[in-house]
Write a structure and sequence with these properties.
- The longest helix is centred in the first third of the chain and has 39 residues.
- With 146 residues, this protein is an alpha+beta fold.
- Helix content is 38%, strand content 48%.
- A six-stranded mixed sheet has the order 2-1-6-5-4-3.
- A hairpin with a 2-residue loop joins strand 4 and strand 5.
- The chain is built from three helices and six strands.
- It is globular and about 40 Å long.
């Protein structure tokens, strides 16, 4: 009897844990999609609290912190017009989520409209009030995304 109750408790525990992980993964995936829309809309009011104060951004032209990324988005220095997401995966490690997006990005950079295939690595950290973006890195692919 004790063995049966113990097994049942283990099954419930593992099922709950698997469901919670799936929920966290879906939450991060949805947040990432929303972030792409906010970037397209130049919605710095939503992006500012999402980006951690110590966040880093790695682009083809260099790397910088939160203030410069927000300023670039606000000014249109880079306008992330549309991110077509082909594949997405996320791994949760403790309070950290590592999300990979395989995208084709339509952007305006320095006044020129460009389309590039990227793998984008996004690192999110779970805090009391929700997820914060800690890092966003673009890796340009040599072939078309998908």
């Amino acid at each position: 009897m004790k063995t049966s109750i113990f097994r049942l408790l283990l099954i419930v525990l593992f099922t709950t844990n698997a469901f919670a992980q799936t929920t966290a993964e879906q939450e991060v995936i949805q947040l990432s999609k929303q972030k792409w829309q906010w970037m397209a809309d130049k919605n710095v009011d939503q992006l500012t609290p999402l980006f951690d104060d110590k966040s880093v951004f790695v682009h083809m032209g260099g790397s910088w912190g939160k203030k410069q990324e927000i300023d670039i988005i606000k000014s249109g220095g880079i306008h992330y017009k549309k991110a077509d997401i082909h594949e997405v995966s996320v791994n949760i490690i403790g309070n950290t989520a590592i999300l990979l997006n395989n995208i084709t990005l339509l952007a305006v950079v320095g006044g020129n409209e460009v389309t590039n295939p990227f793998i984008v690595t996004e690192v999110y950290i779970k805090e009391n009030e929700g997820w914060k973006l800690g890092s966003l890195s673009f890796t340009k692919l040599m072939t078309a995304a998908h």
